[in-house]
Amino acid sequence: MALYKEKHIEYIVSLDTHVKDYQYWLSEHLRLNGTYWGLTALSLLDSKDSFKKQDVIDFVLSCYNEDGGFGAFKNHDSHLLSTLSALQILLIYDSLDVLTDQGIEKTVKFITDLQLPNGAFQGDRFGEVDTRFVYTAIQSLAILGRLSSKVVDKAVEFILSCANFDGGFGLAPGAESHSAQVFTCLGTLAIADKLDLVDVELTGWWLSERQVENGGLNGRPSKLPDVCYSWWVLSSLALINKLGYIDFAKLREFILSCQDEVTGGISDRPGNQVDVFHTIFGLAGLSLMGYENLVPVDPMYCLPVEVGKKIKKWPYKE
Ligand SMILES: [Zn+2]
Question: Which part of the chain is the Prenyltransferase alpha-alpha toroid domain (predicted)?
Fold first, then answer.
C-alpha cells in the first residue's frame, strides 16, 4: 500500500479553510495544538508553505495572554500544552522574536511558576499534574534557551519517581505504565541529558511488547493498537537506540491501512474517522522508520530534525 502524500496535504490544508466547521476542525480547546500538529505534518511532507505563515503567526499571537502563557484559542486561559504548541510553531517559522524579550520573560515566568516543590508541573493554574506537563514545560524552556539547574534537576527527580519496575513510566508516582508517559518521561530525560539514568534494556523490552499481531502498537498490555502509539513507542525506542525491537514492515502496513484514500488523513485504526492528531503521529512514525522519503523527525521534540537543531542543548556551555 502507498502513502497518499498529496491527499494528506489537501486534508490538512482543508482543516484551515473550514475554520468555522467543527466537523472538520478540532474543537476550539485544541485549536493551537491542532495547528502545531498540522504544521508539523506538512513539514514532514515537505509542504510547510501550504499554510500561510503570517496568518498562522497572527493566530498564535492572538492566543497570547497577559500572564505570558498561551491559551488554545483567543480569550482562553493559558495552559502549558498550548504554550508549547505556540513556541514550536514560532520555532518552525524562525519567528520567536515576535514575542519580544519582555514577552519571553513573562512566558518563562509563566512556565516556571507552575513547577511544584516535588519537581512536577501543573498544566495550568487549576492544578492538574501529569508527567506530560513536565515534558511540555521542559521542552518550552529549551526552545526559549532558558533551562536552569534549579528547574531541570527537580524535574528529573520527579520523572525518575514515576519509573515502574516493569520498565515503563506512569503519569504520577505509582501510576500504571503507559506508552505515552514513557515518551514524555524519556523525552524529558533526553532534553535534560540524563538518559544514562534509564535501564534501557528493561524499558526497551516493555516498549517492544507493545507491537501486536496486526503490526500496530498499543499503549498498555492487552489494549487495541492505535496509530498514535507509532509515535509514542517508536520515539521512545529511538531515544534509547532500540528501534530494532519493532518489526518496521508490519507497523508500516498498519499505519498505511489507517489512511482514508478519498479524503486524505490517517485514523487511529483501519476504517475509523481520520483526524489531524493521528495524521501527524502516523507520519512521524513512518518518518522515524525512514519510509516514504519523509522529512526526518527528531524523536526528542517531535519537530523536523532541522528545526530541532535550532534548540540549544542542555547543559549550556557558558
Ligand atoms: Zn490514538
Answer: 3-303
Q: Look-up: residue for cell 492528531?
A: 277
Give the residue extent of every domain in the chain: 5-309
* Length of the chain measured in residues: 318
Distance from Cα 23 to the centre of ligand 1, integer Å = 18
Q: How far is the CA of 230 from the centre of ligand 1 (A)?
A: 9
Closest alpha carbon to 28 in 84, 77, 92: 77
Residue 278 alpha carbon to ligand 1 centre in Å: 6
Q: What is the pTM of this model?
A: 0.96
Sequence letter at residue 125: R
Calculate how far, in angstroms, residue 317's C-alpha sits from the geometric centre of ligand 1. 39
pLDDT by residue (tens digit) across 73-123?
Answer: 889 999 999 999 999 999 999 999 999 999 999 999 999 999 999 999 999
Radius of gyration of the chain (CA): 19
Gap from CA of 98 to ligand 1 centroid (Å): 33
Percent of the chain with pLDDT over 90: 90
**Ligand 1: distance of its center to the CA of 219 in Å?**
9
User: 5-309: what fold?
Assistant: Glycosyltransferase (1.50.10)
